[in-house]
Amino acid sequence: MDKSPTTPQPQNITNELAKERNRAAAERTVLAWIRTCLSMIGFGVGIDRIVNAIYTAVGGRLDPTGLSKLIGLAFVGLGTFAMVAAAVGHYRELRHLESKVYSYAPRASLGFAVAVSLSMIGVTAFCGILALAWLGK
């Protein structure tokens, strides 16, 4: 009698490979979000530091309007929020892929939320810079 250990075969290899492709796609997506969020955070820190360095180099006090600090903090905050949202979304997607019954469920787009937030930061920066130019500062 042969008692060699056998590995259980998946019920349907096509379905198992499709699940593996979906998991790999979810990993690529979260890695892309991490890169995007780190760029936003770095950009926010850079805006604040560069503007303050310029003001210091020309003998002025640190950013008299505070606009660069506000914009920098907005980028850092948005990058941090998007990072947390991407991590939570990735965790939920993995749990959804592991469920026995997989069905499509529409959900809110993190990309759209970040695009709207970046647009609001851009409009705020534009209006602030325009107001400073108009007031002659």
Describe it for me?
The protein has 137 residues and is mainly alpha-helical. The protein has one domain (20-98, 108-135). The protein has three helices and no strands. The mean pLDDT is 84.
Structure in a nutshell:
By secondary structure, the protein is mainly α.
Which SSEs are present, and which pair or pack?
Layout: H1 13-57, H2 67-98, H3 110-135
Helix pairs in contact: 1-2, 2-3
Key features of this structure:
mainly alpha, single chain, 3 helices, 137 residues, 0% strand, 75% helix
- Portion in helices: over 70%
Distance between the termini: 92 Å
Q: Count of helical segments? A: 3
Unreliable spans are none
Strand content: under 5%
User: What structural class should be given to the helix and strand makeup?
Assistant: mainly alpha
The total tally of domains equals 1
The count of strands amounts to 0
Q: State the order of secondary-structure elements, H for helix, E for strand.
A: HHH
